[in-house]
Design goal:
Shape: globular
Number of domains: 1
Radius of gyration: 12 Å
Structural class: mainly alpha
Strand order of the largest sheet: 1-2-3
Number of strands: 3
Largest sheet: 3 strands, antiparallel
Order of helices and strands: EEEHHH
Strand content: 5-15%
Helix content: 40-55%
Length: about 70
């Protein structure tokens, strides 16, 4: 398995082009995503968007699985 860095733009508050509302949210997501990447997770912009929306309460836990099924 090869580590493949992802694009994080802290000035524009984006990860792989997905915008976050503030630097704290971006850093929290970057840390969580990075930790999971060491376990083999390969993020996509759509998965990052789902993660962000879930953390912000835009996606309820009951809907999370359905969203993830459509993104993989």
């Amino acid at each position: 398995m090869t580590y493949k860095p992802i694009e994080i733009d802290r000035q524009n508050l984006t990860i792989m082009g997905i915008r976050f509302s503030d630097i704290e949210s971006l850093n929290s997501a970057a840390n969580a995503i990075g930790s999971n990447m060491f376990e083999g997770f390969e993020p996509t912009p759509r998965l990052i968007e789902i993660y962000r929306d879930y953390r912000e309460g835009k996606i309820l836990s009951g809907d999370l699985i359905e969203k993830l099924r459509g993104a993989v």
